[in-house]
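Hi there, hope your week has been kind to you so far. Thanks so much in advance, here it is:
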Amino acid sequence: MSNRFVGKTGKPTKKAATTTSRTNQIPLELLNNNQLNSLISQSLPQNYNFELHKTIHQVNQNNVAILGLQMPEGLLQFSLIISDIINKFCPNCHQIIVLGDVTYGACCVDDYTAKALGCQMLIHYGHSCLIPVDQTSIKTLYVFVEIGIDRQHLADTIKANFPACMHQEQEEEKNRTIKHVSISHEEEQELHLALVGTVQFVSAVQALKHELEQPSSQSNQPKMITPSAPDTIQHHHHHHQPCRFKVTVPQVKPLSPGEILGCTAPKLSPEIDAILYLGDGRFHLESIMIANPTIPAFRYDPYEKKITHEGYDHAQMRAVRANAIEIARESLRAEREDSERGWAVVLGTLGRQGSLNVLKVEPPSILSSQG
């Protein structure tokens, strides 16, 4: 279990590093606490990892009296259960505050509000460490909330659909589900996939890379992608085009390998044949599609157990942006003729979305680009 709680930025000495390692190590009596383990298994989804053992250990280790919890809307339903469990096993924690503001992403970690409310520590759920813990105003623990999925179904789905779906036109159906086509037997070809996903599924991404790169015999090729929704899925015929997978798991630091955000995605090598995104929704996927407009993108939804070929209208996006830029340029030209007109630069205050450094740099940059 990895630790994402950091106290100091300075390089520790060997003695200090040993002490820190011992401090961060979760005691066996806590890991094996039957009452705690029973509460977790009975009260919370078994495929969600809220890392409560580590949380309780950190809260007790730092003698936290007032604790703040911050979650995206999808996890808020578990906030009171988690609060009760922490309160039960942290005798010195007298108050737990659940932040109610909407949390859109990793940049919304709201240590400022937590500190203003008197919290000594903040636990941020569901996002990666986009804001380093050595830059937050109070002790901060990031809990990724890894979600367990059917990894075998995921691997079988990819093997059954590739490379067949690479040669098929995108369907314009409401659910945009890929239908399989019969293809003639050909020599084994290599397919270079880039695997990405949200932070909840980075472990599954790594496991899929390992699975796909294992040699498999023709007889072991799966013949269908899912047992459900027969009206939207066509089965493969007995001859499945052999394929050897080469897998790349890209990384944009400080994100984890394979992790992407709506605002952060890697520029991929032209050698990549296709992008496979593991997650629900399109928000994060669109960032890597915008960054790599020539590479086809596919999405595997672990909840629906369905793979889809995703499209993006790059021409329209560029036209909309170009139009907005031209409107801005015209307003700057008009400002020269009318001194009462001007621009307002708005600093966002939702968590850490507002950047003072950007605020200091951008206004002069905008003014210097007039005309």
Observations:
- Confidence is low (pLDDT under 50) at residues 1-12, 169-185, 222-239.
- Residues 31 and 108 are 31 Å apart (CA to CA).
